[in-house]
Write a structure and sequence with these properties.
Layout: E1 14-18, H1 28-40, E2 43-50, H2 64-90, E3 95-101, H3 105-115, E4 120-124, H4 139-146, E5 151-154, E6 165-169, H5 180-197, E7 201-207, H6 218-239, E8 245-250, H7 253-263, E9 266-272, H8 286-294, E10 298-302, E11 318-320, H9 324-329, E12 340-344, E13 347-348
Parallel strand pairs: 1-2, 1-4, 2-3, 4-5, 6-7, 6-9, 7-8, 9-10
Antiparallel strand pairs: 5-10, 11-12, 12-13
Helix pairs in contact: 3-4, 5-6, 7-8
Length: about 350
Amino acid sequence: MEKGTQVARSKLRTILVAVADAASSREPAMDRGAQLAKATGARLVLFHAAFDSALSGRPFFDSKRLAKSRGWFVADRMRLLERHANSLRAGGLSVDVRVVWEEPVHEAVVRAAIRENADLVVAGRHERRENRPPQFRLTDWELMRLCPRPLLVTHAMSGTQASGVVLAALDPTHANDKPASLDISIVHSAAEIAVTLGVELHVVHAIPPSAYPLAVTAAERKRFDKRTHSRMEQLIRKADADVKSVHFVHGSVAKGLPEFASTLPAQILAMGIISRRWMERFVIGDTAETIIRDAPCDLLLIKPDGFQLRLGRTRKETVVLPKAAAAARAGTAQASNARKAIVRTGVTQAHVGASQP
């Protein structure tokens, strides 16, 4: 199949990396974001939400001293991120740094993605805990639920794998309330990343035993599989993407997809996440939870069209940035002017050492 016009030219213009630990010497999310930015020429935004409850005076105990302490805290995180940014700039990348005083972190990241008009958000995955269910207050899980932009969640051990294909998990049967348009979005986003990385794009559909009627005969099973294969081919033609190979996995979806991604192997697994209509807020389904938890590679997560974002309210806090002389002595020369940054809807009006978005 010829490469479609949708992926002939990179659409990635801005990539936002959610940096969990500004002091860390190695961030897989930053490595992956830099890799994609270098391949596409996209602007890379290193974002960090700085917050320490010990420095928060809300709701009744705020003071100028705390405001100054918050300013030093923010400036220090800015200094640490600028070190990473300078290293990336030396490699020819266009890098901006954004540090804000805000919590919760996942909502700060979502607001930053919207503010920066990010085409892709890259975040790290928390360290897996054996025999424990997903913890929905962890930042990565909350981002999976709420981020309205394509979200690339890096595997803690994968870094930037040099080999492996991009694998898109599709469902041409549109089971479990899954909209047909979501599969097209998954293919387009996966194809964009595959072209950027210069690797093959494969697609897969998992057929669980429950997809077949009870007491199904071998002939009926064969006809069902044939119809499913035909629907998959129609979907790929409609997406107009350069798909190298189409795969079908029989058995448990939750178990089969991670195992197949490992066998292929895939460096990125692209999949859609849908909401449950009877839930007030966006909730990840049980099958998706298991796949996300067990996937041996990075995950590219796509929301359906019409996804409605709901964020909580934020509170205002004053942040007083350090003066230039004191900041320079502390290695934070990026804070060039002594000024007062007011937290508006949880976001500092003055992004230390960076231009206003």
